[in-house]
Each structure stands twice: as C-alpha cells, then as structure tokens.
Amino acid sequence: MSSSEAVAVARRLYEGFAARDTAAIGAMLHPEVRVYQAGDLPWAGTYAGPEGVGAFLRALLGHVDPRVEVVDLFAAGDAVVQIGRSRGRALATGRPFDASEVHVLRVRDGLVVRFEAFVDVAEFRQALS
How far apart are CA 24 and CA 44, in angstroms? Predict the structure, then answer.
C-alpha cells in the first residue's frame, strides 16, 4: 500500500468519526485492530478488536463530545500520523476543551490495524473536573 493510499484510509476514518457513523468506522477496521489511548483519562487504555473499538468509543463519547480538526496528515509506509486538535465539551461539567493531539495509525490491507492517541491530558482533565 502506498503512503497516499494509507492517508486516504485515515481520512475516511476521520470522516466517519466526524459523522458519528459507526458503520463507516467499523468498515475501516482490521479484525486485529488495537486502540491505545495514552494518559490518565476515563477512556485511556488499550482496546482490542472491533468490539474493543466500540468500547473505546462508548467510553470516550460517554465523557466528552469531541470534534477533531485534522491539521496535518502524513505517512511513511503503513504509518499515518495525524496532527490536530480536539475541541468540544465535557458532558458532565459542560466545560469546553481545546486540546492538541497526535494520532498514529497503522494501516494493513487497506484497514486500520492500530490507532494510538496522544492528547493534551491536562486540557481534558480540566474540562472533566
């Protein structure tokens, strides 16, 4: 798979997330997908398989209403790096957040097999508390 094809896969995943289209997101996932969210957040951890991705999304969206702004996407082989921002509100407090983020995606056979999220944890913790 070329770098441009890997970036196209990542773009489709972000479009699915923006639309909150779980079917579109699910169609982009490799059966062996793993999600890793860094930091001390209620949705942090490692999630395995499409069911794990569903659990991750439920945990994330159960705490915050994020809108991802992709600032840059670039690839090297099967790795795609997204540099962006996550803006929105914490559901329990109503407080806004505007957090920088970096995501690293691995693409295999045209599907996302790994998704690693590194975010401004302090910004999210402030909105959550």
Answer: 23
- CA separation for the pair 48, 58 (Å, rounded): 14
pLDDT per position as a tens digit, 4-22: 899 999 999 999 999 999 9
| 41-53 b/e (C-beta count within 10 Å ≥ 16 → b) | bebbeebeeeebb
Residue 61 Cα to chain centre, angstroms: 11
Rounded to whole angstroms, how far apart are CA atoms 17 and 103?
A: 14
Residue 46 β-bridge partners: 36
Number of H helices, E strands in the chain: 4, 6
- C-alpha distances in angstroms, 73 versus 27, 32, 56, 65, 125? 20, 23, 22, 22, 26
